[in-house]
Design brief:
By secondary structure, this protein is of the alpha/beta class. Strand 27 and strand 28 form a beta hairpin.
Length: about 1100
């Protein structure tokens, strides 16, 4: 017996412990339900209003404190405002904590209200209540409610997802458990068919009572629209507004209203992109989102695990971005690939002959040739087929071990005859010397594709005493330019080779409408707008001879991981999270709680059936399908790619078996195909996770026949995907069965699991067509899946570590930008900028330098004498210099308002009826800025509004310019630091050190340019006749930029992921050790840390 099961029986497991903690809360809900359900309809709605008022007024004392502090801001000097804003931020957090206490207290009654509402809709065709204003407004836009006199009549059926749906659901006890888990900010794992959408109504309703908004996040727009329409009337009955952002255009007034609703549905992509768009807005009117309060993520594993590797990116064209080399070198790489393919085929043919000879020496030579064929093209189908034969794979692996000894010391002996080497596990392609020679001969230039040893050349240049300093600098620039050109050339060649050797059409991507579209390996859906990064997508486009899209520059980016970590409270629900519980805790601090099923699971999960070849496996699948159809059972055949779906479809057509196919090419028919999948003898071929969010419902006839039969045609790399496919059968106690057909040629088996199983099959003497079926084999396959999960987790964690560096910068910049946009805290930020400039100038210069810098940046004389500079500590000069700079700034601002006021007064009093908004020209001595402001506000505020709008315009302009440039430099840095791995350095560490320098330079640039402009501001026009009316405010331009997901294919991330970084429990935080001042710098320059990357740190 399994030791874990014994321990579980003795001490209990996590699931039972979780249920014991939640049980008392569920009992309180059930007790409250007895009272709540006795209320009439009007009393029920009144109870909701009572709870809502109690919760929203629970923090009135704290909100009053916030208003008091805000009232003090205008009368507080700029340099003293930060303390007030910090107090406001602290109290706002206390408000949220106070709300949370009240929500917990209201939970039993709120859950009981939702359950009672569901029961009333299920049992009554119509529900009559006293009409209020919300009901009347609702009746004008929704057909499920009508007004008759002073009564509102709610019907129990409405349109959801295009279908007329009658409400027939009432929460049962295990759904109450799930609702409590979601409210507590955890992940509720509930089996397929257990009603996750209905469970979400409980915490959504409760948390919406705060008025701070609840976001319900789905994996696609169909589910977002369907669920908002399906569950919406339950919330609306109680006066809560509901909307779906995917129904409205970005940056529109309708989308802004959707975010103002109490409950907002939408897809993860749109929530993330709206956040980025808001942080590119030029006016407060362009903002759509409000504070991130509470989110429930449906199919949380798809959103926070699968999509976590694909950051959301808003990008725009870069200068000469269309000047790329992919189309130029595609014919050359195609010829190189064909040469390698012939070589791989030749080695395979020789290997077959030598291995079959029976001679020991020839067999050894044969396995070497086979290994070379494998390193040349591991996805070659004839090779995969041959490796599945008895003893072949194990023989090749023994040969590989010989050449991998002593840290791959002899590997070059095996790979030297090849043109390039493919590593399928690492997702990498590397040219050999032979490949470089072939390229050199083809283009007639031996150095065209060879990267120079730039370190050696730079050392030689430094040692060359015949050149003066200026000549050395010019020569150094030439070396760097030559290296950059050749580096881009080599990168293009390698990405094209990867496109040919590792990416197959109709597996990893499809070509539709003249575009290369990535296919989601989990769902088989086309991922619109998603592109592979680092030039790989352009390489595949060149390979397929479609238009190669121009290179783009990043304007704004965020990973879904960092986006969802911004919420005050986050929870999720899915049927397949437990296998990724470690990752959910490690990255999001989300606990996974397994909820028991309402009825015992009746599904029979059979052992995997393992065959040698895919041909044998597919024949067995078809025979199993025929058998199930004959028994009158519906069959769902799960595949992992488009081409397998089409192959099985052709095989079924040959046997005249009717069937439906659901894959990336037919994803628009998904809902219709899934709806028919539970009918008697219906065969449906679908990718493993297709149709998520829709249940396959069975008739009584099908239940008697044995229920839905699940046939998996391949084990997926992730266990939860297999669990999702199995979960399609056996919903709500239905009968059913599941079985996976596996071959040694499958991708997972080939990479990780086939050696041991092939050895077992060889030992037992299995012949062609025979299969092995045993629990031991299942465990071996699951071990292989765990290996892949560990690798993928490492990749995602590595990505997050890179994005965390950017996220710290993003948080600072977006906060400053929001302060500038809203205007409320702009004075505090300007005061901090002036302080920063004063400290930087005094710290970094001698007296002459201070004098020049104060004049250049502050537009003022240095506020201390040379004697004071020499006699006092630098720190003692900071405060008086800052006060002098602030006085200069205030004097300049007051002067600007004073000069503008007579003009504004005259225009307002004489022509106020003609103008609503005017343009006020303000100059810094070099440029003239036309500042748009409201004439009435300018007059009533004595031109303070003019000053604020000028400050806002300057800050937004400087922040946006510097941030876009910083993102471009970070993109370039991220690519360039990967070369550090060749020098035995950690690219991530170098990235962190260098990115800090880039960020510091960006902040200095923003501070310098903003301070210099503000310190020189003046109004050049003083004649009222010269005042111009401002035209309509320019709203944010619609889609001048591109919004994409980028699938990252970073080889360094793949390498780092080979280590198992998974945590199953929280660990103590260990502070990263910083090198000492005199230690060697970790970047490898040979300098001391204090003189290199630690210059500003130690």
């Amino acid at each position: 017996m399994d030791i874990n099961k014994i321990i579980g029986k003795l001490f209990g497991n996590k699931s039972t412990r979780d249920m014991k903690l939640i049980q008392p809360i569920v009992e309180q809900v059930k007790e409250a339900y007895k009272t709540i359900d006795q209320l009439n309809n009007d009393e029920l709605r009144a109870k909701t209003k009572e709870l809502q008022q109690k919760i929203q007024h629970s923090a009135d004392d704290l909100k009053a404190k916030i208003e008091e502090l805000k009232a003090k801001i205008e009368d507080t000097p700029l340099e003293d405002r930060e303390l007030i804003f910090n107090q406001i931020d602290k109290i706002e957090k206390e408000v949220l904590e106070r709300y949370e206490v009240e929500l917990n207290a209201a939970l039993p009654e709120a859950f009981a209200i939702v359950k009672s509402t569901a029961r009333r809709f299920a049992e009554n065709p119509e529900i009559e209540v006293t009409a209020n204003d919300f009901d009347r407004e609702l009746a004008t836009s929704h057909d499920f409610v009508r007004i008759e006199g002073d009564k509102a009549i709610y019907q129990n059926h409405w349109i959801a997802g295009g279908n007329d749906t009658q409400w027939n659901m009432v929460h049962y006890d295990v759904q109450l458990f799930g609702g409590v888990v979601l409210h507590q900010g955890k992940i509720s794992e509930m089996a397929t068919g257990e009603g996750k959408t209905l469970v979400a109504t409980l915490p959504v309703f409760l948390n919406a009572l705060t008025g701070n908004g609840v976001h319900v996040v789905t994996v696609n727009d169909y589910l977002a629209k369907r669920d908002s329409e399906w569950m919406g009337p339950i919330y609306m009955f109680h006066g809560l507004s509901v909307d779906c952002i995917d129904k409205h255009q970005p940056n529109s007034e309708a989308r802004r209203r959707a975010y103002q609703a109490d409950i907002t549905f939408g897809t993860n992509n749109e929530f993330g992109f709206d956040y980025l768009r808001d942080n590119m807005a030029m006016s407060p009117e362009d903002l759509v989102q409000r504070a991130h309060n509470y989110a429930i993520v449906d199919e949380v594993d798809s959103v926070l695990i699968d999509d976590a590797r694909t950051p959301l990116i808003i990008s725009g064209p870069v200068p000469r971005g269309e000047d790329q080399l992919f189309e130029q070198y595609q014919p050359l790489v195609e010829r190189l690939y064909e040469a390698q393919r012939k070589l791989a085929t030749q080695y395979l043919a020789e290997a077959k002959t030598l291995i079959a000879s029976g001679d020991k020496e020839k067999i050894s030579e044969g396995f070497l040739q086979l290994f070379r064929s494998h390193k040349a093209l591991p996805k070659n189908r004839p090779l995969i087929k041959f490796l599945s034969e008895q003893g072949i794979k194990s023989g090749m692996l023994k040969t590989e071990e010989i050449y991998m000894e002593n840290n791959n010391k002899r590997m070059h002996e095996a790979t030297d005859p090849l043109f390039f080497v493919v590593d399928e596990k690492m997702n990498s392609v590397d040219l050999t010397d032979k490949g470089n020679d072939w390229l050199a001969q083809s283009v007639g230039d031996a150095t065209l594709f060879v990267l120079p040893d730039i370190t050696a050349e730079l050392s030689a240049l430094e040692a060359d005493e015949s050149l003066d300093k200026e000549a050395k600098l010019m020569k150094k620039d030439e070396l760097y330019a030559d290296y950059a050109v050749k580096s881009e050339r080599v990168h293009t060649i390698l990405q094209l080779l990867k496109a040919y050797a590792m990416f197959n059409k109709d597996e990893e991507y499809v070509v539709m409408d003249g575009q290369v579209k990535i296919v989601d390996e989990q769902t088989g859906r086309i991922m619109e707008g998603r592109r592979w990064s680092d030039g790989l997508h352009q390489a595949v486009e060149a390979k397929e001879h479609v238009k190669v899209e121009a290179a783009n520059q990043t304007f704004a980016t965020i990973t879904l991981q960092n986006y969802f970590r911004m919420y005050h409270k986050l929870s999720g629900m899915t049927g397949t999270a437990i296998t990724e519980a470690g990752e959910f805790w490690d990255i999001y601090k989300l606990d996974v709680v397994e909820i028991p099923t309402n009825r015992p699971v009746q599904r029979i999960d059979m052992n995997d059936r393992v065959y040698r070849t895919q041909r044998e496996k597919y024949n067995a699948v078809i025979e199993e399908v025929q058998k199930m159809v004959a028994e009158g059972r519906p069959v769902l055949v799960g595949t992992t790619s488009v081409d397998v779906s089409e192959l099985l479809s052709k095989m079924l057509q040959l046997r005249h078996i009717p069937h439906n196919v659901l894959n990336a090419k037919l994803h628009k028919k998904e809902a219709d195909i899934v709806a028919q999948a539970g009918q008697s003898s219906i065969v449906t071929i679908a990718t493993n996770m297709a149709g998520r969010g829709t249940d396959i419902k069975l008739s009584e006839e099908v239940r008697k026949a044995g229920g839905l039969a699940i046939i998996g045609t391949e084990r997926h790399e992730s266990r939860r995907v297999d669990r999702q496919l199995r979960g399609r059968a056996g919903r709500q106690g239905d009968p059913g069965s599941s079985v996976f057909f596996v071959s040694l040629e499958d991708s997972l088996m080939r990479k990780f699991a086939s050696e041991r199983i092939a050895h077992v099959m060889d030992k037992l003497g299995f012949k062609e067509g025979e299969m092995i079926e045993a629990s031991m084999i299942n465990k071996g396959i699951e071990r292989a899946q765990k290996k892949v999960e560990e690798i993928n987790f490492g990749v995602r964690k590595r990505l997050l570590e890179y994005d965390d560096v950017m996220n710290k910068q993003r948080t600072v910049i977006y906060e400053k930008r929001r302060h500038a946009l809203m205007g409320e805290r702009i004075g505090m930020d300007i005061s901090n900028m002036i302080w920063d400039r004063v400290v930087s100038i005094i710290d970094s210069n001698d007296y002459a330098g201070c004098r020049d810098q104060f004049l250049e940046v502050m537009a003022m004389d240095v506020p201390f004498s040379e004697e004071e500079f020499d006699a006092k500590k630098r720190e003692d000069l900071f405060e008086p210099s800052f006060q002098a700079a602030m006085e200069n700034f205030k004097r300049r601002i007051d002067q600007l308002a004073r000069i503008a006021m007579p003009v504004i007064t005259k225009v307002y009093e004489e022509q106020g009826q003609m103008y609503e908004n005017i343009l006020v020209p303000i100059s810094d001595g070099r440029l003239v800025y036309n500042i748009r402001c409201n004439l009435k506000e300018a007059y009533e505020s004595e031109c303070r509004v003019v000053v604020r709008d000028f400050e806002k315009a300057i800050l937004l302009h400087n922040i946006d310019d510097a941030w876009k440039e910083n993102l471009r430099e970070l993109d370039e840095l991220r690519k360039s630091v990967q070369n550090a791995s060749y020098e035995q350095k950690d690219p991530l560490l170098i990235f962190k050190l260098e990115s800090v320098k880039l960020f510091d330079a960006m902040v200095n640039k923003i501070n310098n340019s903003t301070t210099a402009t503000l310190m020189r501001c003046q109004i050049p026009v003083q004649n009222p006749q010269d005042v111009r009316q401002a035209g309509p405010e320019q709203r944010a331009p619609k889609q001048k930029y591109t919004e994409t997901h980028e699938d990252l294919n970073d080889e360094s991330q793949q390498a780092a992921a080979q280590q198992d970084t998974r945590k199953t429990a929280p660990e103590p935080i260990v502070k990263e050790k910083v090198p000492g001042r005199n230690d060697p710098c970790p970047c490898g320059s040979g300098k001391k840390f204090k003189n290199c990357h630690g210059k500003d740190l130690v």
